[in-house]
Amino acid sequence: MKVNFRNVDEFTNFVKDNKVDISNAIYRSIEKAVKENQKEALLFEIHFMGQEFLYEITIDQPDWIDSLNKSIEVFTNSNESDKAIDAHELKLLVEDLLI
Fold first, then answer.
1. Alpha-carbon distance 65 to 69, whole Å?
2. Whole-prediction pTM value?
């Protein structure tokens, strides 16, 4: 997911205020990494205005299960049961891959 922000505070507020969107991004990035047999999932490509750098936020394979567990919790607390089920199924697949 490519995102642009004016500053770090704007990014921090985005993460804090958009837990379901962040959880969706986590799910999609891990799902893509599994399909492409990658060792890390690209979560965000972040650009801050006035800077020429692009920052990548990734999730390393050993952290996928924990990230999916947190996403399941967010989906469940937000009454997004279908997404919680999808994330749980992906978590089971990841667990099998990491054995």
1. 6
2. 0.91
